[in-house]
């Protein structure tokens, strides 16, 4: 009686080195396509968030200006990778109605100039106030004003 010899069935065989290399090559090709696409999608999402938040902040600015004695929009730029903050407050009051954030790398523009602050009178027209004496030079235009968002790569989206 001889000893039993165990034979591995063919369907339980492991992968060969060639199959493993081919699999790694396919994964590498898929990753080289997916990673840049993912970065592009993240960039587009940030741009969309910046646009939505800017529109909401501007709408709140006008609502506050028309319902109170005017309103201020204060833009606090980002430090490093943090978000830029847009704060809406009523003129002559310490009440803050809303704070909005733009993702890092996005900047709010008014008539093609970086916006640091803007004050509106009760009619929704830009004015100079003690809280905001730095107005863009082209702010004397009749509303609607030309708003835009620019991201770190220079892409600009305009809106009214």
UniProtKB/TrEMBL annotation:
Classification via SUPFAM superfamilies: Pili subunits
Gene3D superfamilies, per database record: Glycoprotein, Type 4 Pilin (3.30.700.10)
Organism: Acidithiobacillus concretivorus
Highest taxon of the lineage: Bacteria
Name under which the protein is recorded: Type II secretion system protein
Matching InterPro entries: N_methyl_site, Pilin-like
Residue ranges of the TM segments: 20-40
Lineage of the species this protein comes from: Bacteria, Pseudomonadati, Pseudomonadota, Acidithiobacillia, Acidithiobacillales
Keywords, sorted A to Z: Membrane, Transmembrane, Transmembrane helix
